[in-house]
Fold:
Amino acid sequence: MYENLILILDATLRVSAPLILAALAGLFSERSGIVNIALEGKMLSAAFAAAATASVTGNVWLGLLAAIGVSVCLSLIHGFASITHRGDQIVSGVAINMLAVGLTVTLGRFWFGLGGQTPALPDSARFTPITLPGADAVADVPVIGPLYSELISGHNILVYLALLMVPFVWWVVFRTRFGLRLRAAGENPHAVDTAGISVAWIRYRALICAGILCGIAGAYLSTAHSAGFVANMSAGKGFIALAALIFGKWKPVPVLFGCLLFGFLDAVAIRLQGAELPIVGEIPVQAIEVLPYILTVLLLAGFIGRAVGPKSIGVPYVKTR
Amino acid sequence: MNDSKIPAWVNIIVLPMLNIFFAFAFSAIIFVAVDVNPLEAAMVMVKGALGYQEGVGYTLYYATNFIFTGLAVAVAFSAGLFNIGGEGQAYLGGLGVGLACLGLDQALPFWALLPITMVTSMLFGALWALIPAYLQAYRGSHIVITTIMFNFIASALMVYLMVNVLKLDGQMAPVSRVFEQSAVMPMFHEIAGWFGWSFSESPMNLSFFIALACCVLVWILLWRTRWGYAIRAMGSSPSAAEYGGINHKKLIIIVMLISGALSGMLGLNEVQGYGQQLKLDFVAGYGFTGIAVCLIGRNHPVGIILASLLFGVLYQGGAELAFDFPNIDREMIQVVQALVVLFSGALALMLVKPTERIFVLWDRKKKSLGKAQAEA
Structure:
């Protein structure tokens, strides 16, 4: 029983890491007033860029860099449309998602000729699990042993990075001048403008931060979690991250818990596949899979708590003269 | 004439054309990047989509889907609502059609079944839009997010139903049984045959004409009825509409029901016409393409028919591309579609200012010329 629990929690961490990164990316952009349904597309493109670069150069760090570069570029397109030209933020998000699905497969076919996949990466071109000091030594100690050696140790570096990003993002958004301005741009951009600060520049910077985080999330998918890119491998994770962002009410720590909860549900769904439970019998996997979406809808509707977003979210800022 | 205004024809024809031109120009760059001559590719696509009867049939079959989903997005857009849930609503609509066919295909002849499948497709689609609509109207939750969530819920629901309930015993593939031939939509080549016109076989079917009828009905609804007036009023200024005595909560529900019903009717074409059985993923992104169709069609039924034809050509032509060029497949069309959404939707305002400037200059020149002539 205990070991099962540790295994599920271990899987939870692995599934949650990209959700955490993507949700924090969404936090930056949505706090600054830009609805970001393009998380999915940015992540997918980043995953492709990471796998393609890593397989060509054999260097996973160059892959990560390429992923961040591509994702930031898409963020800048998003910004160019929705900040500079005051286009609809959702429409530009839809466009980026479509572009990612089409372009990754098209370029993948052209470059690698594997029907849109990238070649399988060797371990040297991937982020591999790190064994923390002492993990092997305590592995046989009851209770604490499995907890440390299975759950805490033995993840790749991006998992730890994702967890460290939570306090970092909290610090940036709530304890720095940039963070204050960022939040103000999402609540009351006119006030920001009156103080002589450019709303557009703040929103652009927020989108660049989002691009960096989405880039890491994408690289995680293709070079850490799996060994290579397959078509549409983000498979809705960007939207789950968006749901977690809303579920966490646009605050870093609750967002972390939202991601962990959704990751946990995912891990449980995989383990419960076909298993008979006492009393209720076999639970269809799909019922657990949809829980993140249903919970988010209920929360948005105010049936379980209330999620109120930044006030000026989704509204292009028009400077008044 | 006001100097800062551009003439209506520029707004309706020139600007959308310019946007599409930009989208195609960028697509051409990507074609070049994957070593395909864009002009050659365009020729292949046009030929494949319009060059022979079967191709035309396929083009119009795709266009049928786009008309339904495009109209669905447009009706919601007219009221200022962004229904991004066409995908899920169409999925459920198809389920409605499929269930009606599976249940009644042995009992009823086609002409008795058709009204029932039409009603179930609309009903299921509308019901899937009702919950997000209710939550937007009465609980203030953002319709974009809820409809996205409902797309995923619809997809999980369908997987569950297909795998656990509707799958045939002793079969691996999650598909239902094939409907009786009597339940299937008359294909266009059959209809043409009734009038003595021999047309090549294609999946184009009666639902194309149902889609056209929907265009007329939507046009009447939006521009010739009180509801339509209220919808457009709410779309252009919610506060003014509210002040004018329009109950916006009720209207949100009505608009989304209509929008969901239109999406749901995609099931008529895709399930009762093309698939002839229930299976997974038959919506295949048509719901999202509806957004592109609506953006190019500028929310107007006539524009939507034209845009649907354009996308029909792209889809059918895109399928043909794969035969001639080993480097590309239908995913390339997704790229073109994305660029169209980007330029016609997100960057729609980009070209307005420059175009305005050109017209103001042109206008001034004409006036000064006229003055000079008058003085002479």
Chain A has a mean pLDDT of 90.
